[in-house]
TrEMBL record:
GO terms for cellular component: lysosome. Belongs to the glycosyl hydrolase 29 family. It comes from Dreissena polymorpha. Alpha-L-fucosidase is responsible for hydrolyzing the alpha-1,6-linked fucose joined to the reducing-end N-acetylglucosamine of the carbohydrate moieties of glycoproteins. Residues 1-19 form the signal peptide. Residues 363-455 form the Alpha-L-fucosidase C-terminal domain. This is alpha-L-fucosidase. SUPFAM superfamilies: (Trans)glycosidases.
Length: 458
């Protein structure tokens, strides 16, 4: 029999451990501090890749749109495929024969992104890993005959040294068990207990993702999905419990309210400071998440437009998750690669204004348009303020209405060695006029979105 001392020690250990645990309710789960790596990273890459990459037409919802009678998709399928063609017939052509995870990792590293989120399973139900819960509808049994999730995980972690996350759709368009639960008004939970949640456990144990980006939740409440139960395990017991971050798509009553960070709607960019950490999941292709064969250059965001999204998102406290769609054979096409590498070149010069920053008192300038602010404490403990100028000043003078300079204020242009002169407004008034020098084109630090660094403001 144990001594009274042993019993008391055990009770103390249990109580301390219990006090640190998260309970399966939103009040407790929302109290978990967001791992700091996520907020500091700011820039992520999203990858939508699956069987939908074979037709690469319209959207990743092609199967659903076709079967529910949307004319654009019905006509496309009627004109190009035999009458008895099924969506499953696309899967053998999801070949990924040109997929080199090392090449992808090198592109992502060059982009300056600090994390990557791959689609492990979209609404079509096809898993990009050999899931034992998706017999003959996974990337090992049909199509690539490869573990796409695992191969990219290894390459990202070994070559790029950035964080790796996974997107996972809870629901599936036409899974019989899901449709049965739906027919029963979600009073039964057969799909959840035998498919959706077991897949998530499998992903966590096998690949240890540092982001779980949930989706496909909206038709049912969180109680159907057992979201709080899974997240309590994820935060308390899982092999990634100390580093993992999650979004807010865990039930139709949860989105934009609960979770690790708020992803709210697609392409969410409110343009104002938010009370909680949030993410702008957006696309370089203005209209689609997956690769489209009929995409045009005009459909793609320019670098100026992409950096506008970056600046406005980070200034308001968000992260930006930039989506590209790989092809069915496993390529990231040149237009996507060019945008990502150009982003990396810009961050090489201006990353100090992005990584590890916090929102400033002002998010955008009170007087001059197209200026966004970020801030960061420097090694001396004072605050550096960064003004991201989305347009180059016309006449060499640039007025900022938000900062108030002191006698010790210095202004520099990131990537340009010479200090920038400035003048203050009338005494005790807010604002600073920056005197932009005539910089030769071959000395210009970047081609768009120039950054002024201001130190020792009042």
């Amino acid at each position: 029999m144990p001594s009274i001392t042993t019993i008391l020690v055990c009770l103390v250990v249990v109580q301390v451990g219990y006090g640190e645990r998260y309970e399966p309710n939103w009040e407790s789960l929302d109290s978990r501090p967001l791992p700091s790596w996520y907020d500091e990273s700011k820039i992520g890459i999203f990858l939508h890749w699956g069987v939908f990459s074979v037709p690469s037409f319209g959207s990743a919802w092609l199967w659903y749109e076709w079967k529910t009678g949307v004319p654009k998709y019905v006509d496309f399928m009627a004109k190009n495929y035999r009458p008895d063609f099924t969506y499953a017939d696309f899967a053998p052509d999801f070949t990924a024969e040109l997929f080199d995870p090392n090449d992808w990792a090198d592109i992502f590293k060059a982009s300056g992104a600090r994390y990557v989120v791959l689609t492990s399973k979209h609404h079509e139900g096809f898993t990009n890993w050999p899931s034992k819960y998706s017999f003959n509808w996974n990337s090992m049994d049909v199509g690539p005959k490869r573990d796409l999730v695992g191969e990219l995980a290894s390459a990202i972690r070994s070559r790029a040294n950035i964080h790796y996350g996974l997107y996972h759709s809870l629901f599936e368009f036409f899974h019989p068990l899901y449709l049965q639960d739906k027919e029963n008004n979600f009073t039964t939970r057969d799909f959840v207990t035998t498919k959706a949640i077991p897949e998530l456990y499998e992903l966590v144990y096998n690949y240890k993702p540092e982001v779980i980006w949930s989706d496909g939740d909206w038709e049912a409440l969180d109680t159907y999905w057992n979201s709080t139960g899974f997240l309590a395990w994820l935060y308390n017991e899982s092999p990634v419990k100390d580093v993992v971050v999650t979004n807010d798509r865990w039930g139709g009553n949860v989105q934009c309210k609960h979770g690790g960070f708020l992803s709210c709607s697609d392409r969410f960019n409110p343009g104002t400071l938010q009370k909680r950490k949030w993410e702008n999941a957006m696309t370089i292709d203005r209209y689609a998440w997956e690769y489209r064969r009929d995409v045009t250059l005009a459909d793609m965001l320019t670098m100026e437009e992409l950096l506008t999204q970056v600046a406005s998102t980070v200034s308001c406290g968000g992260n930006i998750l930039i989506n590209v769609g790989p092809t069915k054979d496993g390529r990231i096409v040149p237009i996507f690669e060019e945008r990502l590498r150009s982003l990396g070149q810009w961050l090489n010069v201006n990353g100090a204004a992005i990584y590890g920053t916090s929102p400033w008192v002002y998010q955008n300038d009170t007087v001059t348009k197209h200026v966004w602010y970020t801030s960061k404490k420097n090694s001396q403990g004072s605050l550096d303020v960064f003004a991201i100028l989305l347009q180059w000043p016309d006449h060499g003078k640039f007025y900022l209405g938000s900062p108030t300079p002191s006698q010790n204020t210095t202004v520099t242009l990131l990537g340009y060695d010479t200090p920038i002169k400035w003048t203050a407004s009338a005494a005790h008034e807010q604002g600073i006029t920056v005197l932009i020098p005539a910089i030769p084109f071959n000395k210009m630090p970047c081609n768009y979105a120039w950054v002024l660094k201001m130190q020792n403001l009042a």
